[in-house]
Amino acid sequence: MNHSDHAYVSSEWVHEEKRRYYCAWVQQDLFSDWVLCCRWGSLDSARGGQKTLLCHSKELGATLLQKMEKRRASRGYCDLQSSLVQTNENLGVC
């Protein structure tokens, strides 16, 4: 297995009004299984949670992550990665 097989994809979202964050990423665990890891919580306290879902492939994990991206956007969360790009281009924030 080459190094690129261990690469993962990730996303981070923030809801400024509700002061909440959500992040998710796909990676291989110690047994070389692909997993989707999710973490969420408050921007103002240490409260939050996390979960790990077993995926049959990296592609399935990426598909589930795309579905999460759509759900976060529909609930008013701002994608931090796109916000950083917009800010760097002086287009404003999300």
Number of domains: 1
Q: What's the helical proportion of residues? A: 25-40%
Strand order of the largest sheet: 4-3-2-1-5
- Please provide the count of β strands: 5
Distance between the termini: 39 Å
Radius of gyration equals 15 Å
Shape: globular
Oligomer: single chain
Helix-and-strand structural type = alpha+beta
- H/E element sequence: EEEEHEH
- Count the DSSP helices: 2
Descriptive tags:
94 residues; alpha+beta; five-stranded antiparallel beta sheet; 36% strand
Quick structural gist:
The protein is of the alpha+beta class and 94 residues long.
Structure characterization notes:
With 94 residues, the protein is an alpha+beta fold. It has one domain. 28% of the residues lie in helices and 36% in strands. The chain has helices at residues 58-74, 80-88, and strands at residues 10-15, 20-28, 34-42, 48-55, 78-79. It has a 5-stranded antiparallel sheet. β1 (10-15) and β2 form a beta hairpin. 9% of the residues are buried. Mean pLDDT is 83; it is low at 83-94.
Write the layout of secondary structure elements.
Blueprint: E1 10-15, E2 20-28, E3 34-42, E4 48-55, H1 58-74, E5 78-79, H2 80-88
